[in-house]
Design goal:
By secondary structure, the protein is an alpha+beta fold. Among the domains are: 16-129, no CATH class; 134-171, no CATH class; 314-434, D-Amino Acid Oxidase, Chain A, domain 2 (2-Layer Sandwich), CATH 3.30.9.80; 507-555, no CATH class. The chain contains 17 helices and 13 strands. Strands 7-12-8-11-10-9 form a six-stranded antiparallel β-sheet, with helices on both faces. The longest helix has 34 residues, at 53-86.
Length: 562
C-alpha cells in the first residue's frame, strides 16, 4: 500500500545540515533551547528596567507561565516545518505508531503524501489505540483498585475491551465526576425505556402514516457500486417464511441498523436457565451487516465485534418481589424506601466479593405501568458468567432464575438458612443471556464501523451503536439518536446542525472541577511541593488575585475563600 524508501535515522545521503537539524528537533532539545533564550531575554529586560532581584524573579515566573502555551505552539510548528524540509517526502510507511512518535503530539493528525505529492492520508493520533486492549496499558495496580471496580460494574468494561473506547469515555463523561458519589448526574425515565420512549414514538409514527411490518426479517441490502457512488437497489427479506424483494430507486431512502447488542438474547425463567448457543443461532442484525459488508469496505467489518461471544457476553436478570423481609435488606443498603416512587439506588450497587461480579440496581418504582403497587423490581447482572457462585456452586450461565435470586440474596446479607425459601417462594426471577451485549466494546480501528453515511452513498445510511460518529460514546441512548439525526439530515439535505456533544474536555470549568473531585474534594494547591515550585505557585497566585481567574478557581474549590 505504501512505499518505504528511506529511514531518516540511518540515511547516509543526507547532508550535514539536515542531520544537525534532525538532531536539534529530536526529543525536547528545541523546546529547551527556545525556553532558555526566552527566559534570558525576559530576565535581561526586567533587570535593565528595575534592577531589583525580587521583582525580576516574580515577573519572570509570571511571564513563563503566561507564555508557556505560546512557546509550545511555536515549537511544535517549527519542529513540523523542519521535519517537512529535511525528510524525504516519498518515505511512506504503514508504521502508524512510528509516524505518530516522530511528529508533534499536539497536532490532531499527521499527513503522508504519495510519490506524486498528491494523495493526503490522515493518520489520527488515536491510531495508537487501534485494536489495543485496556490491559495493554494498565496493570494489576489499576485492575485491583476501587476505581476499576466502579468503572467495570458501572459501564460493563472488561480488561480485554477497547482502550480507545475507554479513552473516549473518560473525555465524554469527565463533567459527571462531581456526581459520582451520589449518582446525581444520572437521569431516569418515569417507567422503563420501552414504555417511556419506544411506545410513544411508535404511536406518533403510526399517527403520521408510518407502516410497520412485523414477522419480517431483512437479510440483505443489495448495492449498485459504480466507482465511489453507492446506491441501494434491492432489499432482500423473508416475510412470513417467504423470500421477497423490495426494489428501490435513488429517491428511496434506506436506514440500516447494522448489528445489535441484544441480538440472539436467550431467555430463561424462574425454573430454567437461559440455555442455547449464540454461535449456532440465527443472528438477524449481524447476518444482515455481514451480507452488506461483503459488498464494499466502506460498510465496515462486523467480524471485529461479533466473532468472539465469550468476550462480549454477560447475563442479566430481573427479580420481582413483594416480600417485606427481602425489601428490608435492600433498604439497609440503599437507605431509601423502595416503594416511594422516587429513584432508589441511583446507580449500580456492586458486590465486590462476588465471584460472578454481581451488580444490581432499582429504579423508580413501579418500573412498569401494570406493576402492582407492593412489588419491587430489581435488575441484576453478572460479568463473570463462567465462574462458580459463592452460594450457588455452579456457573451463573447454568443457573435458573431462583438460583440467581439466591446468589443475590446471599450477597445482600440474608442469613444462609433463609435464602432458599425466600428465593424460590418469594421472588420471580427471569434470567437472560446476552451474547453480544458489549460487542461494541471490542477492540477496533478506523473503518471497522461504517460512517453513518458511507462515502459515496446516495440513498442509504447506518444507524445505532455500530455506526461511526465523532467524539460520542456507545452504550448510550444519545449515540443512537445522534446517528439517526446525522443520517436523516444528511440524506434529506436538512440544513440544520446536529446538536454538539457536550464539550467537557474543552471546558476549563469542567476540568478544574474534576481535578478537585478526583482528589476527594481536596484542592490540587494543597499538595506538598518542593520549595522552588512553591515559589512559582505563590508568585502566580499573587498575580491572579482580584482577577476572573481567581474567581473561577474559588468557584470550583481550587482556592479557598479568604
Amino acid at each position: 500500500m505504501f512505499r518505504k524508501k528511506h529511514d531518516f535515522r540511518g540515511d547516509k545521503s543526507q547532508s550535514k545540515k539536515n542531520k544537525f537539524l534532525l538532531f536539534f528537533v529530536k526529543d525536547e532539545r528545541l523546546y529547551i533551547t527556545m525556553a532558555a533564550v526566552m527566559a534570558a531575554i525576559i530576565l535581561g529586560w526586567e533587570w535593565l528596567c528595575n534592577k531589583q532581584v525580587d521583582s525580576m524573579i516574580e515577573f519572570s515566573t509570571f511571564s513563563a507561565v503566561v507564555i508557556e502555551s505560546i512557546l509550545v505552539f511555536v515549537v511544535n510548528r517549527l519542529r513540523s516545518h523542519i521535519m517537512n524540509q529535511v525528510e524525504d517526502p516519498n518515505k511512506l510507511t504503514t508504521d502508524y505508531d512510528g509516524l505518530v512518535k516522530r511528529y508533534s503530539l499536539e497536532r490532531n493528525f499527521v499527513t503522508c503524501k504519495n510519490s506524486d505529492g498528491v494523495e493526503v492520508i490522515p493518520v489520527i493520533l488515536e491510531a495508537r489505540l487501534y485494536d489495543k486492549k485496556i490491559e495493554d496499558f494498565f496493570d494489576d495496580e489499576v485492575f485491583d483498585s476501587n476505581f476499576w471496580l466502579y468503572w467495570r460494574t458501572m459501564f460493563a468494561f472488561q480488561n480485554w475491551h477497547s482502550a480507545l473506547e475507554m479513552k473516549l469515555y473518560f473525555k465524554r463523561f469527565i463533567h459527571h465526576i462531581a456526581g459520582l458519589p451520589d449518582f446525581s448526574a444520572l437521569k431516569f425515565t418515569r417507567y422503563n425505556q420501552y414504555e417511556s420512549l419506544i411506545m410513544p414514538m411508535l404511536k406518533y409514527l403510526e399517527n403520521a402514516g408510518v407502516s410497520f411490518k412485523f414477522n419480517t426479517e431483512v437479510t440483505n441490502v443489495i448495492f449498485d457500486i459504480d466507482g465511489k457512488k453507492k446506491t441501494a437497489k434491492t432489499i432482500e427479506c423473508v416475510v412470513a417464511g417467504k423470500n421477497e424483494e423490495i426494489k428501490l430507486t435513488d429517491n428511496d431512502l434506506v436506514f440500516i441498523t447494522n448489528g445489535s447488542c441484544t441480538e440472539s438474547t436467550i431467555y430463561g425463567d424462574h425454573e430454567h436457565a437461559p440455555t442455547g448457543s449464540a454461535k449456532i443461532r440465527k443472528s438477524g442484525c449481524w447476518s444482515l451487516w455481514k451480507n452488506i459488508a461483503r459488498q464494499d469496505m466502506a460498510f465496515g467489518n462486523p467480524e471485529k465485534f461479533c466473532s468472539d461471544v465469550e468476550k462480549s457476553k454477560w447475563e442479566s436478570a430481573t427479580i420481582t418481589t413483594s416480600d417485606e423481609k427481602i425489601i428490608s435488606y435492600i433498604e439497609k443498603i440503599c437507605k431509601r424506601d423502595s416503594r416511594s416512587g422516587k429513584v432508589v439506588t441511583g446507580g449500580i450497587v456492586s458486590c465486590k466479593d462476588s465471584s460472578w461480579l454481581l451488580s444490581w440496581t432499582i429504579n423508580r418504582q413501579g418500573q412498569f405501568k401494570k406493576q402492582k403497587k407492593d412489588e419491587v423490581c430489581i435488575w441484576v447482572y453478572g460479568l463473570f458468567t463462567d465462574a462458580v457462585g459463592d452460594y450457588i456452586r455452579k456457573p451463573m450461565k447454568d443457573c435458573c432464575g431462583w438460583e440467581i435470586a439466591a446468589e443475590w440474596l446471599y450477597h445482600l446479607g440474608v442469613p444462609v438458612n433463609e435464602i432458599d425459601e425466600l428465593a424460590k417462594e418469594h421472588t420471580n426471577c427471569i434470567p437472560t443471556m446476552l451474547p453480544y451485549i458489549t460487542a461494541f466494546f471490542m477492540p477496533r480501528r478506523k473503518g471497522d464501523r461504517p460512517d453513518v453515511i458511507p462515502d459515496g452513498s446516495v440513498n442509504a445510511a447506518f444507524l445505532g451503536q455500530f455506526a461511526e460518529t465523532p467524539r460520542d460514546t456507545i452504550f448510550t441512548t444519545e449515540y443512537s439518536v445522534r446517528t439517526a439525526m446525522e443520517a436523516v439530515y444528511g440524506l434529506c439535505g436538512v440544513d440544520r446542525a446536529v446538536p454538539e456533544v457536550w464539550g467537557s474536555t474543552y471546558d476549563i470549568r469542567e476540568l478544574v472541577e474534576s481535578s478537585v473531585r478526583l482528589m476527594d474534594g481536596k484542592s490540587p494547591l494543597d499538595m506538598e511541593l518542593p520549595k522552588p515550585l512553591n515559589m512559582v505557585k505563590n508568585a502566580v497566585l499573587k498575580k491572579i488575585k482580584g482577577t476572573d481567574i481567581e474567581k473561577l478557581l474559588k468557584e470550583h474549590g481550587v482556592l479557598n475563600e479568604g
